Amino acid sequence: MKFRVIPVTAFQQNCTLCWCEETMQAAVIDPGGDVAKIEAAIKEEGLQLEKILLTHAHIDHAGGTAEIKALHQVPIEGPHKGDLYWIEGLAKQSAMFGFPKVGDFMPDRWLEDGDVVTVGKQTFQVLHCPGHTPGHVVFFDKSAGMAQVGDVIFQGSIGRTDFPGGNHQQLIDSIRKKLFALGDEVEFIPGHGPASTLGHEKRTNPFVSDHRG
């Protein structure tokens, strides 16, 4: 699987275009907005969009979903149904954060822990990692050693838990028990900021490292 990160919205959210090199079929992960930028990247890479994948339903990750679905007539997979209330409240989120008006959508497939998502002939394993939101999921490409972690963990930080439905202990457990178990060498693309590896964060991240005081 190949990956291309496209920062979108004023929040500089890492929307990721990923595709199967054999079939050139692609998924867009967390299309938060700036749909023209996402569309340009799809065309530049010569891809056929197959689906939209959502890690969670905050506006900066999901704001462009309805528009892309309308353009390509593709299914939406994810997040976990625990984020239903965030999807139902997207218009309110949009107004609160000064985003353009967003269209309504509902996922074609809610995801559960242990599910598998396909992109062309490639696959992602689905991990339900609540804490930032109740329905947050992570997409793990085992063959590439790459995880799309949304806002669960960042380089040197972790996701916020002060929004409705956030839970700090759940987030810590998601990182330590699910993500770190994938292996130190696994690289991840977070929802914001630079990529890192789980091993680096396990050693150095002040919120979840083995060396916390």
Automatic annotation (TrEMBL):
Residues 12-192 form the Metallo-beta-lactamase domain. The keyword Transport does not apply. The keyword Hydrolase applies. Gene3D superfamilies: Ribonuclease Z/Hydroxyacylglutathione hydrolase-like. SUPFAM superfamilies: Metallo-hydrolase/oxidoreductase. It comes from Neptunomonas qingdaonensis. This is Glyoxylase, beta-lactamase superfamily II. GO terms for molecular function: hydrolase activity; metal ion binding. Residues 192-213 are annotated as: Disordered. The lineage of its organism: Bacteria, Pseudomonadati, Pseudomonadota, Gammaproteobacteria, Oceanospirillales.
